[in-house]
Amino acid sequence: MGTISVDLFITLDGVYQAPGGPDEDREGGFEYGGWQGAYFDDESGEVIGAGIDRMDALLLGRKTYDIFAGFWPNRGDDDPIAVTFNALPKFVVSRSMTDPAWQGTTALSDVAEVAALKDRFNDIHVVGSGDLARSLLEADLVDRLNLYLYPLTFGSGKRLFTDGRGVPAAFRLAEPPRAFPKGAIALFYERAGAPVTGIDISEG
Questions:
Q1: What is the pLDDT of residues 93-143, one digit of tens each?
Q2: Strand pairing of 123-127 and 57-61?
Protein backbone atom coordinates (compact mmCIF):
# COMPACT_ATOMS: atom_id res chain seq x y z
CA MET A 1 0.00 0.00 0.00
CA GLY A 2 1.45 3.34 -1.03
CA THR A 3 1.40 6.62 0.85
CA ILE A 4 0.10 10.09 0.05
CA SER A 5 2.29 12.95 1.21
CA VAL A 6 1.36 16.63 1.14
CA ASP A 7 4.32 18.93 0.46
CA LEU A 8 3.44 22.48 1.44
CA PHE A 9 5.41 25.71 1.75
CA ILE A 10 3.72 27.67 4.53
CA THR A 11 4.18 30.84 6.59
CA LEU A 12 3.99 31.17 10.37
CA ASP A 13 0.38 32.28 10.08
CA GLY A 14 -0.50 29.36 7.83
CA VAL A 15 -0.51 31.02 4.40
CA TYR A 16 0.52 28.82 1.47
CA GLN A 17 -0.52 31.10 -1.40
CA ALA A 18 1.91 31.95 -4.22
CA PRO A 19 5.30 31.09 -2.71
CA GLY A 20 7.01 30.77 -6.08
CA GLY A 21 6.41 34.09 -7.82
CA PRO A 22 4.64 37.46 -7.62
CA ASP A 23 2.03 36.52 -10.23
CA GLU A 24 1.65 32.86 -9.32
CA ASP A 25 -1.72 33.34 -7.62
CA ARG A 26 -3.22 36.78 -6.99
CA GLU A 27 -6.68 35.42 -6.14
CA GLY A 28 -8.37 37.45 -3.42
CA GLY A 29 -6.09 40.40 -4.12
CA PHE A 30 -3.04 38.65 -2.63
CA GLU A 31 -0.06 40.98 -3.12
CA TYR A 32 2.76 39.04 -1.48
CA GLY A 33 3.52 36.36 -4.06
CA GLY A 34 7.09 35.20 -4.43
CA TRP A 35 7.86 35.04 -0.71
CA GLN A 36 9.79 31.77 -0.66
CA GLY A 37 12.77 32.96 -2.71
CA ALA A 38 14.27 35.20 -0.03
CA TYR A 39 14.62 32.16 2.25
CA PHE A 40 15.91 29.67 -0.30
CA ASP A 41 19.36 28.22 0.32
CA ASP A 42 21.35 25.20 -0.83
CA GLU A 43 20.43 23.17 2.24
CA SER A 44 16.67 23.60 1.91
CA GLY A 45 16.93 23.05 -1.83
CA GLU A 46 18.68 19.74 -1.22
CA VAL A 47 15.94 18.49 1.12
CA ILE A 48 13.15 19.62 -1.20
CA GLY A 49 14.94 18.03 -4.14
CA ALA A 50 15.40 14.74 -2.29
CA GLY A 51 11.65 14.60 -1.68
CA ILE A 52 10.98 15.15 -5.37
CA ASP A 53 13.42 12.39 -6.29
CA ARG A 54 11.54 9.90 -4.07
CA MET A 55 8.07 10.43 -5.49
CA ASP A 56 6.72 8.09 -8.14
CA ALA A 57 3.45 9.95 -8.82
CA LEU A 58 2.37 13.58 -8.63
CA LEU A 59 -1.14 14.54 -7.48
CA LEU A 60 -2.37 18.10 -7.98
CA GLY A 61 -5.43 20.26 -7.61
CA ARG A 62 -6.68 22.10 -10.68
CA LYS A 63 -5.19 25.52 -9.87
CA THR A 64 -1.71 24.20 -9.11
CA TYR A 65 -1.91 21.87 -12.09
CA ASP A 66 -2.57 24.79 -14.42
CA ILE A 67 0.43 26.66 -12.96
CA PHE A 68 2.70 23.64 -13.25
CA ALA A 69 1.47 22.65 -16.73
CA GLY A 70 2.23 26.15 -17.98
CA PHE A 71 5.73 26.13 -16.52
CA TRP A 72 7.52 22.76 -16.22
CA PRO A 73 7.03 21.46 -19.78
CA ASN A 74 8.79 24.60 -21.03
CA ARG A 75 11.90 24.06 -18.93
CA GLY A 76 14.94 22.44 -20.49
CA ASP A 77 16.50 19.06 -19.79
CA ASP A 78 19.16 20.81 -17.69
CA ASP A 79 16.54 21.41 -14.96
CA PRO A 80 16.36 18.18 -12.91
CA ILE A 81 13.01 19.08 -11.31
CA ALA A 82 11.48 19.67 -14.74
CA VAL A 83 12.84 16.35 -15.98
CA THR A 84 11.31 14.55 -13.00
CA PHE A 85 7.92 16.28 -13.09
CA ASN A 86 7.57 15.88 -16.85
CA ALA A 87 8.34 12.15 -16.65
CA LEU A 88 6.21 11.29 -13.61
CA PRO A 89 2.67 9.94 -13.85
CA LYS A 90 0.50 12.92 -12.94
CA PHE A 91 -3.05 13.12 -11.64
CA VAL A 92 -5.23 16.21 -11.39
CA VAL A 93 -8.48 16.27 -9.41
CA SER A 94 -10.95 18.32 -11.41
CA ARG A 95 -14.65 18.04 -12.15
CA SER A 96 -14.31 19.97 -15.41
CA MET A 97 -11.03 18.81 -16.96
CA THR A 98 -11.36 15.84 -19.29
CA ASP A 99 -8.33 16.08 -21.58
CA PRO A 100 -5.24 17.34 -19.71
CA ALA A 101 -2.59 18.83 -21.98
CA TRP A 102 0.48 18.00 -19.87
CA GLN A 103 1.80 14.67 -21.12
CA GLY A 104 1.36 11.82 -18.65
CA THR A 105 -1.62 13.38 -16.84
CA THR A 106 -4.84 11.61 -15.87
CA ALA A 107 -7.86 13.60 -14.70
CA LEU A 108 -9.79 12.37 -11.65
CA SER A 109 -13.28 13.75 -11.20
CA ASP A 110 -13.51 13.33 -7.43
CA VAL A 111 -11.32 13.04 -4.33
CA ALA A 112 -12.85 9.60 -3.72
CA GLU A 113 -10.87 8.30 -6.72
CA VAL A 114 -7.56 9.17 -5.07
CA ALA A 115 -7.57 6.22 -2.63
CA ALA A 116 -7.09 3.77 -5.51
CA LEU A 117 -3.77 5.38 -6.40
CA LYS A 118 -2.26 3.85 -3.27
CA ASP A 119 -2.62 0.44 -4.89
CA ARG A 120 -0.63 1.59 -7.93
CA PHE A 121 2.15 3.78 -6.54
CA ASN A 122 4.45 3.75 -3.51
CA ASP A 123 5.11 7.45 -2.91
CA ILE A 124 2.44 9.87 -4.15
CA HIS A 125 3.02 13.56 -3.47
CA VAL A 126 0.64 16.49 -3.45
CA VAL A 127 2.63 19.67 -4.08
CA GLY A 128 0.96 22.93 -3.09
CA SER A 129 -2.70 22.41 -4.07
CA GLY A 130 -4.07 23.65 -0.76
CA ASP A 131 -7.74 23.07 -1.61
CA LEU A 132 -7.01 19.49 -2.61
CA ALA A 133 -4.81 18.94 0.44
CA ARG A 134 -7.62 20.11 2.70
CA SER A 135 -10.11 17.79 1.00
CA LEU A 136 -7.71 14.85 1.33
CA LEU A 137 -7.21 15.59 5.02
CA GLU A 138 -10.96 15.73 5.54
CA ALA A 139 -11.26 12.35 3.80
CA ASP A 140 -8.42 10.96 5.96
CA LEU A 141 -6.35 10.10 2.90
CA VAL A 142 -3.16 11.93 3.91
CA ASP A 143 -0.43 9.71 5.34
CA ARG A 144 2.26 12.35 5.71
CA LEU A 145 2.63 16.13 5.95
CA ASN A 146 5.92 17.61 4.73
CA LEU A 147 5.70 21.21 5.87
CA TYR A 148 8.32 23.79 5.02
CA LEU A 149 7.74 26.61 7.51
CA TYR A 150 8.99 30.11 6.66
CA PRO A 151 9.62 32.91 9.19
CA LEU A 152 7.13 35.51 8.03
CA THR A 153 3.46 36.41 8.35
CA PHE A 154 1.02 38.15 6.01
CA GLY A 155 -2.27 38.28 7.86
CA SER A 156 -4.11 37.41 4.66
CA GLY A 157 -3.96 34.79 1.94
CA LYS A 158 -5.02 31.19 1.46
CA ARG A 159 -4.58 28.96 4.50
CA LEU A 160 -4.72 25.20 4.85
CA PHE A 161 -7.47 25.30 7.48
CA THR A 162 -10.07 28.06 7.46
CA ASP A 163 -13.63 28.57 8.68
CA GLY A 164 -13.52 25.56 10.97
CA ARG A 165 -12.72 23.10 8.18
CA GLY A 166 -10.69 20.06 9.05
CA VAL A 167 -11.13 16.87 11.03
CA PRO A 168 -9.62 15.75 14.34
CA ALA A 169 -6.34 13.99 13.58
CA ALA A 170 -3.04 13.36 15.32
CA PHE A 171 0.38 13.27 13.69
CA ARG A 172 3.84 12.27 14.92
CA LEU A 173 7.27 13.29 13.72
CA ALA A 174 8.37 10.96 10.93
CA GLU A 175 11.95 12.25 11.09
CA PRO A 176 13.81 14.99 12.94
CA PRO A 177 13.02 18.61 11.98
CA ARG A 178 15.54 20.35 9.77
CA ALA A 179 16.49 24.00 10.27
CA PHE A 180 18.05 25.87 7.36
CA PRO A 181 20.50 28.82 7.35
CA LYS A 182 18.02 31.47 6.19
CA GLY A 183 15.41 30.59 8.80
CA ALA A 184 13.08 28.06 7.18
CA ILE A 185 12.31 24.80 9.00
CA ALA A 186 11.23 21.46 7.50
CA LEU A 187 8.73 19.49 9.60
CA PHE A 188 7.85 15.94 8.58
CA TYR A 189 4.76 14.39 10.18
CA GLU A 190 3.01 11.08 9.63
CA ARG A 191 -0.57 10.19 10.53
CA ALA A 192 -0.95 8.83 14.07
CA GLY A 193 -4.60 8.09 14.76
CA ALA A 194 -6.95 10.28 16.76
CA PRO A 195 -5.91 13.19 19.01
CA VAL A 196 -5.51 12.45 22.70
CA THR A 197 -7.59 14.97 24.64
CA GLY A 198 -9.27 15.36 28.02
CA ILE A 199 -6.00 15.49 30.00
CA ASP A 200 -5.69 18.05 32.79
CA ILE A 201 -2.02 18.94 32.60
CA SER A 202 -2.03 20.29 36.16
CA GLU A 203 -2.71 16.76 37.45
CA GLY A 204 0.27 15.23 35.70
A1: 998 988 898 999 999 999 999 999 999 999 999 998 989 999 999 999 999
A2: parallel
Distance CA 131, CA 149 (A): 18
Cα-Cα-Cα-Cα dihedral sign, residues 58, 63, 69, 72: negative
Cβ contacts of 15-19, under 8 Å, gap ≥ 24: 15/153, 15/154, 15/156, 15/157, 15/158, 15/159, 16/128, 16/130, 16/157, 16/158, 16/159, 16/160, 17/130, 17/157, 17/158, 18/157, 19/128, 19/150
pLDDT tens digits, 61-87:
999 999 999 999 999 888 999 999 999
| pTM summary value | 0.91
> What pairs with residue 88 in β-bridges?
none
Q: Which helix (H) or strand (E) holds 46?
A: helix 42-54
Which one-letter DSSP state was computed for residue 115?
G
Q: Is the dihedral of CA 69, 75, 76, 79 positive or negative?
A: negative
How many CB atoms within 10 Å of residue 46?
A: 12
